[in-house]
Amino acid sequence: MTLSERKHATEYTEEAYLVFEELDTRVTRIFEDVKAWRGWRLISAGNTPKQEIMALVREIFRSVVWYQAHTTEAGFHMFGRLPKKDVRLIQQLSSHKAEEAEHGVWAQEDHAKSGGSATDRSIPPSPATFAVAAVWWRMAQVEEPLGYLGAEYLFEQLTALVTQAALPIIEGRDLPRESLRFVIEHATEDAKHAVFLKHLILDVVTRYPGSGDAMLRCFDYFHAVYPLPVWDEAYERAVGGLG
Ligand SMILES: [Fe+2]
Ligand SMILES: [Fe+2]
């Protein structure tokens, strides 16, 4: 392959850039909603007692434990339905999802280290985390499987933004790092994962024109239940526990 052929092969279409920019703009908007949310205000206010911050974070970890295994299994199912000739794409998505598989365990460990009960997994899931699992399984079964990339971009890019914004708070308030592995490791991991997904989205929309519609649709389905429905439930549990 000549240099110019190679350059051409890595070029993405205008449509692909438009789809990616739309997904990215939506995540940025959702991050603004998160920063205006009462839970983020509690975490970021300089005078919130540390135990109140950790009570909320602990409840968010509990939420992750409730949905994460289900969203992981649904994800494998969804991209398992991709066109079978697209071996490279299936390999890339499988490899990424395999890396993600144990992150619910990180959340479980952080939850326990920050004082949560070890028996949480036996407790039925909260309504919003049940809804997250339900949306992911419904998408996995009936949606266009390329739509996976849109919903996954919301997961990865939002986690990157929120965990990066949390790092200076962990530092400034000297929060217990040993209970915050999930947050600290995601600040670097998910920045990388978001870039990985960006390139996949650009590549896939270039190769499958029109697939951006399913990506945007799946993004919106997932956003109907995540993040604030889940995190505000965690806030309610934390505030109830503090009272
Ligand atoms: Fe993760
Ligand atoms: Fe990730």
From TrEMBL:
Gene3D superfamilies: Heme oxygenase-like. Pfam families: Haem_oxygenas_2. Residues 101-123 are annotated as: Disordered. InterPro entries: Haem_Oase-like_multi-hlx. Residues 101-113 have a biased composition (Basic and acidic residues). SUPFAM superfamilies: Heme oxygenase-like. This is Uncharacterized protein. It comes from Rhizobium aquaticum.
